[in-house]
Every structure is written in structure tokens, then in C-alpha cells.
Amino acid sequence: IYDSVPTNEDINDMVKNGSQLEQSIGVSPAMSVASYLKMEQRSLDIESVFQRYKFENADLSVHQFVCYPVVTNINLENLAFVHRSIPNMNVNLTEAQKTVMSNERLEFLGDSWLGAFVAYVLYRKYPFSDEGALSRMKNAIVNNSNLGKLSQKLGFKERLKENIPRSKTKIKDRSFRQYADCFEAYLGALGIDRFSAEFLDVVDWIEELSQDQFRTLGGTMEKKPLNKNAKGELGNYLQFNKLDAKVKYFCLNNQPPFKSEVRLGDIFLGMGEGQNIKEAEQRAAMEAIDDIDTIQKYSIHVME
Question: What is the largest CA-CA distance in the chain?
């Protein structure tokens, strides 16, 4: 509060000259309390603050703008509204970077959260309904058409950052799909933001029960997405280098999974593993590129 609350002059300016949202925030009880706390910082008495401001638990004008649970982590909230088409526009990003810079992973998480939350709500709300009736109600709630409508109603449509051709968004199902995905991504962000410690023992239990699957399938999932242009990028960095040496790749075995290493002359740069030699070499180049200090040490170019 002490670092972020606007000055009284700024608050007055918000109320007089700001947008409708800014005006509502400026006259809100939260802003009044925050401003008072900041002014009384030296002789702060929390109890007297709440005695001074006795607000009724009623609908306030600012509530019309935010009518859903808020994600307190601003970076997490912003990520929920970034469609994959945005990072895809940047040709300089790797697949791994594109993945973490869009809301797809949050969407995956939110999809699962949504199913669990709706099931829990229905379980409590309809204590005499059988599994079939509960499933039909769940399907009526959890579908792209309904979630797309909810997303638009909540204002997520305006907040979603995307670069999707208009010809695709004119198709009703596709339009609802991207907004439904956004709804799920926001729910995923909420799940991370508000995850309770009470669930941690359950998570640990499920993780322990899943060890066989992790061992069987997890190896490939832990790998970074393959950068198919890694060898080219490494070549661009070191084509002209301070050692006047060549970048060379060496295959270390003759059966899958193949292992390769990349060297600049006799200098080791990186090692990679793949189902074929080409993938192993690309992954070796990826490891080399990640070591910016070493690349900068030998390259004549300035690393960005």
C-alpha cells in the first residue's frame, strides 16, 4: 500500500478527469482506506482505521467492472490472456519460448480444474441425482459454446491478445473455442494463484502413485521442444570466431538414443541426445546456445 497508493492529488484527478472505471476506483472504500493508511503510516493503528471506515457490504459501482475472482499475480493474470498466435508472430523465439509465453499451459490446467470444480458444485447442489444426470448437467456447462459466451460476458473477449485471421474468427465454433480456451486459461491462473496448502498432501499422494507413468513417458516430456534451427543459429554465432576454428559435430554412439557433441575446434560446447543423429546434433547445438557466456567468449558478434 505504502509504495503503490496514488497521492491525494492523483486520486482527485482520477475522480475528476479519469475514465468511468478510474472514477469508480477513486471513490471506492478500498482507495479511501489505502490513502488513509499511507497518510498515517508513522502512527498506524489498524484497529482505528477499520473503526473509522465502516462500510456496508453492498454492491458498489466499481463491482460492475470486476465481477469475477481476481488473480493477484499480475504476470500470471496477463499470461492468461495471451493467445498462442501472439508469440508465434516472433520468428526469433524458440518453440519452448513460444510455449511459455502463451496461455496454452494455463488452458490445459484450467480445463482440468473446471471439470473438477463443476463436478464438486453439482455433487453438492443435487444430492439425489445419479451419475448420468450429473454428467448431463456437467456437459451442459463445460462446453465451448457455453464457456465462450461466459468469456464474452465477463469481458475476456476484449482482454484477449490474439492475432487470428478474421476469416477464422467469423466461424462460430472457432470463435467460441478461442474464448472458451481463454476462460479455461484464466481458471488455470486462479488455480495456481489460490492453490491451498490443504491440497498439497493430496498432490504428493497422486504424484507418488504416478511414478510408473512418469518413468515410462516422462523422459520425452522433460525435454525442451526441439529447435530445428539450432545448428543454423549456432553457426551464425560462430561462423567467424576469435579462434578461427570450425564448428564440428561428433556422434558418440551408433544406436538410439543417439548422443552427439558439438565442438569449436577442440573446445567442447554442448551435448545432445535424440532418436536420430539429426535430433541429437540439434539438441547439442541448443545446449551450446544456452551457454551465452561461452558463445560470447569466442564469437566476434555481440550477443543480445
Answer: 78
Q: Cell 473455442: give the residue.
A: 177
Q: Are 231 and 277 in contact (CB under 8 A)?
A: no
Question: What is the tens place of the pLDDT at every residue in 97-153?
Answer: 899 999 999 999 999 999 998 998 899 898 888 999 899 999 999 999 999 998 998
Active site residue 293: no
Q: Which of 184, 261, 273, 279 is catalytic?
A: 184
**With contact defined as beta carbons under 8 Å apart, do 37 and 48 qualify?**
no
Q: Is 208 a catalytic residue?
A: no
Q: What are phi and psi of 208, to 5 degrees?
A: -65, -40
Under-50 pLDDT residues of the chain: 171
Catalytically annotated residue among 104, 107, 111, 279: 111
- Phi and psi angles of residue 261, each rounded to the nearest 5 degrees, phi first: -125, 155
Q: How many CB atoms neighbour CB 186 within 10 A?
A: 27
| Domains of the chain listed by start with CATH number | 8-64 (no CATH), 76-208 (1.10.1520.10), 230-298 (3.30.160.20)
Q: What size, in residues, is the chain?
A: 304
Tell me how far CA of residue 159 lies from CA of 128, 171, 184, 186, in angstroms.
40, 20, 14, 11
Distance CA 23, CA 27 (A): 6
